[in-house]
Recover the amino acids of this structure.
């Protein structure tokens, strides 16, 4: 009887080790095994808790969810002040059209901006998302564009200007919002290159 019990225990251990090995290296085989209703309910609850606790596990998400780490096509609106370094307080507005298509994580965008002095900027560029814990996201971007100051300050010295910016965003009330800091200069293509900086609130208006 003692020998039979040892054999049964050895068989049980072997079966458990084999099941774990199959789950690690042959997950499709394990998924093919039907689960009881109770086990299915437990699995759904476990996945739900894991999803709500962290999105680092790459569980399925919709592109419409503001918590999603995937970049959708989206429209982002900025409102803030520019020309900060020169002591001016020029209000500006900006709109970005961000695209989901990417190359090694770099996404294209189109952007336009205008300020209270009559200056305007239109350009393109690339941006990259760094997904942080919870809903935090750090986005950096840069690209060329065309600037016109229409005789008002700031006169950045050249038509071709390069915009660089960084944005920290998070989800609040089911909408992604954030703060952004941007720099605009002509990279010394002109002898006059004062550059300008802007600080703004970002609101992600729409995504699809």
């Amino acid at each position: 009887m003692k020998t039979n019990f040892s054999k049964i225990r050895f068989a049980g251990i072997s079966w458990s080790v084999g099941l774990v090995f199959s789950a690690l290296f042959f997950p499709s085989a394990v998924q093919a095994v039907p689960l009881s209703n109770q086990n299915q309910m437990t699995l759904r609850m476990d996945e739900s808790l894991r999803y709500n606790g962290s999105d680092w596990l790459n569980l399925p998400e919709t592109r419409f969810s503001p918590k999603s780490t995937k970049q959708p096509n989206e429209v982002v609106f900025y409102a803030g002040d520019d020309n900060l370094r020169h002591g001016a307080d020029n209000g500006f507005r900006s709109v970005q059209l961000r695209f989901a298509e990417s190359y090694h994580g770099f996404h294209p965008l189109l952007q336009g901006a205008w300020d209270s002095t009559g200056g305007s900027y239109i350009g393109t560029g690339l941006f990259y998302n760094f997904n942080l814990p919870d809903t935090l996201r750090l986005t950096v971007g840069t690209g060329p564009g065309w600037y016109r100051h229409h005789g008002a300050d700031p006169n950045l010295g050249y038509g071709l200007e390069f915009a660089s910016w960084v944005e920290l965003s998070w989800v609040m009330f089911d909408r992604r919002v954030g703060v952004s800091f941007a720099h605009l200069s002509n990279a010394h293509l002109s002898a006059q290159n004062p550059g300008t900086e802007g600080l703004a609130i970002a609101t992600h208006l729409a995504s699809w």
The radius of gyration is 27 Å.
